[in-house]
Specification:
By secondary structure, this protein is of the alpha+beta class. The protein has one domain. Keywords: Membrane, Transmembrane, Transmembrane helix.
């Protein structure tokens, strides 16, 4: 899925953020799940402000899009 997401981000000129890598780099994981090939996220140490820098541009775009639609 990451390959598809990365390719789509290139074509649409958007930024691709791999949450699995991000949580691992920020030490927010506690173990690896071999079945699903992903990390277990330690929800006790996750704080919203760590994700805000990743998602704030997306939130602002969506908010502005909704605002624009409401004016039509």
């Amino acid at each position: 899925m990451t390959t598809t997401s990365t390719s789509l981000a290139v074509v649409t000129e958007l930024r691709h953020s791999n949450i699995g890598y991000f949580t691992n780099e920020e030490n927010l994981t506690i173990d690896w799940n071999d079945t699903f090939d992903c990390y277990y996220i330690n929800k006790d140490v996750v704080r919203l402000d760590r994700f805000l820098n990743l998602f704030l541009p997306i939130i602002l775009v969506l908010f502005n899009f909704e605002l624009l639609l409401s004016l039509i």
